[in-house]
User: What shape does this take?
Amino acid sequence: MTGATAAYLLRRVLLLVPLALGLSILMFGLIHAAPGDPVLALLGPQAAANPRFLEQARANYGLDDPLPIQYLHWLGNVVQGDFGRSYAFNNVPVLELIGQRATATLQLQGVALAIALLIAVPVGILSATRQYSTTDNLVTIGSFVGLALPNFWLALLLQIWLAVELGWLPTLSAGQAKVPWPGRLEYFVMPVAVAALPSVAYYARFMRSAMLEVVGQDYVRTARAKGIGPRGVLYGHALRNALIPMVTVIGLQLPQILGGTVIIEQIFAWPGLGDLAFQAITRRDYPVILAVTMISGIAVMVASVLTDLAYVLVDPRVKLTGHQ
Amino acid sequence: MVATAELEVGREDVRGGGLGRLPPKRRFPLARRFARNKLAVAGLATILVLYGAAIAAPLIQRYDENALSAGMRDKPPSAEHWLGTDRNTRDSWARLVVGGRVSLAAGFAAVAIVMTIGITLGAMAGFFGGIVDQLVMRTTDILLAIPLILLLITAASLFKPGLGTTITVIGVTSWPGTARLVRGQFLALKEQEFVTAARAMGATAPRIMMRHLFPNALAVIIVQATIWLSYAILLEASLSYLGLGVQIPTPSWGNMLQDGQRELQAGAWWLTLFPGLAIFLTVLSFNLMGDGLRDAFDPRHGKR
Assistant: This one.
């Protein structure tokens, strides 16, 4: 790693602090600008009849302070690791709530990512080694189709077909936590398929072009010239190097995965983070919205820095200076 | 892209000089290269059909999209109702065609906003650099860190849901990618000799940006706009499906899917299949077309 690259990465790390602050100010401003009263949403319409009671509740939550004071108060607590308590979910501490929900999302997305890679990597290699063959053309068309399929439409079609018409699988996954293990797998089939499909398309396409790029490099030609057989070149030289950009692209897909999970969890009633975020926004649960967006936003920013770092570590030729 | 433009000019010069060593220049090189990509042409044709149907909606919809017909709840496709009827006894074909009008127009309007903001901010960041660049880039860092759909839902909850809100919200949250792309183009272009020459001749900053840099970045911008047309239509559908976008009774492909989901247990598959198919075809076609355009603009790039 050159000095300039190290300095660049250090600057990226230091930048995380103002970026996280900017993100928090943006989100704080955005959700407080939204019409709708969290206290009313919380206590129900009967409470509206009693203005003094409402005011008391607002004061309890600190919602009667001016906005900048509320922000600083929130920020002070967050720095100490306290994201407050949820308004809409039984006053549970926000971090506890997120912990419960994150497990469900990680299970769903983790399985989906693993399956997507298990399919996409071999398909991408196959496609690249037989460039312009029928297989390759089918893979190219298939990946266009996979990327264009709206995930909620696919989910609804699967529900109609596999759950309603054939009755093979449960339509919704809300009760899955109570079902013991191998049986719980039933609930995973459709959500995992829907979450994995666009990733398969995306990664296969990416793997294909990464392979093609590597196959044209000098060291691959050298390996061939040394008399290494096609398999040896493919797995010993080309594949290992083609996997490097693959690793980084997975890191950069994090926002898409988090975004996709919102809709998938909504359709299948999957009790994860995406569902929590959606409920929190529609029910004006300020502490939960802020915590979910801050945690996912910081995760995305950190992932992007780590991706850059990984790139430099695996390929010493890469120089990062910020002018890209 | 830049090189292409210069190459074409070079050919003209040579021919003008009467050397005549190069083969005669073919007309419409861009269209020819595009036409060679069959998938891209199929995409363009599909888009023309879809937009044609949207424009001709009043002529082909057969029923009013809000007309009720007694006793026709959730009827499967038939000769009278090509795509069946929904839970409110309305004709699905009419709603699909009019919904297409709404969805396609919403996509177009949203992309217009995305491109206007993205190009303006990206151009200024790339051209002026310094503090302007820092401000724009750090804003994109922040916006890109939040999953777009979460940002959309949050922003959509600020206003009364509806068509206008949907378009605005997609437009003002989705520009960062375009801004970065345009900034990159402007950064690379402004170091080229023709810009130095223009500066030396006393051209003002706006003139250099509009007359010299923008035309050279246009190819990349057109491809980006094509791809974003597909994203915007998907985003509109997602928002409307979640109930935060276009509101019933105005039909859109997204809210038709939401409406159809209520009849899912009744097995009314036609309410889900057709609106989704329309979204899928539109998105696929724009992607294929964008890919074809990219290759046509940049022949050296070849078939990837």
Observations:
- Residues 4 and 300 of chain B are 9 Å apart (CA to CA).
- The two ends of chain B are 15 Å apart (CA to CA).
- Confidence is low (pLDDT under 50) at residues 1-18 of chain B.
